[in-house]
Amino acid sequence: MALCDLPQLTLLLLPLLARLSAGDCPCSEAALCQPIRHRPDFEVFVFDVGQKTWKSYDWSQITTVAAFGKYDPELMCYAHSKGARVVLKGDVSLKNIIDPTFRASWIAQKVTFDVAWSPKRIDKRCYNYTGIADACDFLFVMSYDEQSQIWSECIAAANAPYNQTLTGYIDYIKMGISPKKLVMGVPWYGYDYICLNLSKDDICSIAKVPFRGAPCSDAAGHQVPYKVIMKQVNGSVSGSQWDKDQQAPYYNYKDPAGHFHQVWYDNPQSISLKAAYVKNYGLRGIGMWNANCLDYSDDALAREQTQEMWGALKPRL
């Protein structure tokens, strides 16, 4: 998943902006149809994949919403009323990328680029990261799916192990990229793996599913949103456990067919550790894939769990 939001925004929003400038503003106030010019010192970059859950987001934190669902004018109006940008995904032709008029107009906008959790050829991403960083306002580092290429034992592991995650940022900074050019992306989902064998030490052996040269990968499992995990964990055979090495929670459960599963995920505890790194090392901000993974219902417990996840984004020393 990658997003260079300004070229995509330009492609998809030019017809929209033309209508808005012609007076076809869907907002209650015409001013809400104007682009957000404020550039915050600290970014909270939120990915939204559709529906109406955005109405329950913590807008006291959000600076940018990247909308991956169908364009929702109500979302734009509401986000602008809170001082937050809305950007859309899309494709942009090479012709437009090199067009001087487009390039000049983008200077006044926000240009970002999504990169892997590490610059070390993850999933064969061989990019000129320093050049991209120089050309963008910041890089959104996708610090998740870190088991996409497993070169060691084929066992279930954390989606975003703490030390491994931080190593990625250290490597980006060593390349000469300023911490102020890096926004940390954290996962609000986990991975559910079927265990071919589950040892007494909770080592879950998984099927060998190769990916881009690696013998094993997280493709042996499937992604599970945090709201589903929270409904399942208390009824699991193990309850929530904490791995001290990976600084991440997991649990084991047995399916109706009698197979053991191991689920690795991030929770407020693991995310708070990463948010503290963001603060301590002066990163540009934090964000997540994706905000729709939480339970925004009126259930009291779900509401508390959702508030805790949003709260974990606030860096603590």
UniProtKB/TrEMBL annotation:
Question: In this entry, which stretches build a coiled coil?
Answer: none
* Positions of the GH18 domain: 111-317
Where would you find this protein in the cell? Lysosome
Q: What is this protein called?
A: Di-N-acetylchitobiase isoform X2
Can you tell me which family this protein belongs to? Belongs to the glycosyl hydrolase 18 family.
Q: Which GO terms describe its molecular function?
A: chitin binding; chitinase activity
Q: InterPro entries under this entry?
A: Chitinase_II/V-like_cat, Chitinase_insertion_sf, DIAC_cat, GH, GH18_Domain-Containing, Glyco_hydro18_cat
Q: Where is the signal peptide?
A: 1-23
Q: Name the gene that codes for it.
A: Ctbs
Q: Which GO terms describe its biological process?
A: chitin catabolic process; oligosaccharide catabolic process
SUPFAM superfamilies according to UniProt: (Trans)glycosidases (SSF51445)
Organism, per UniProt?
Mus caroli (Ryukyu mouse)
What PROSITE patterns does the record tag this protein with?
GH18_2 (PS51910)
Q: Which GO terms describe its cellular component?
A: extracellular space; lysosome
User: What's the main place this protein lives?
Assistant: other
Gene3D superfamilies, per database record: 3.10.50.10, Glycosidases
Write down the superkingdom of origin.
Answer: Eukaryota
Q: Which UniProt keywords apply?
A: Glycoprotein, Glycosidase, Hydrolase, Lysosome, Signal
Keyword Hydrolase attached: yes
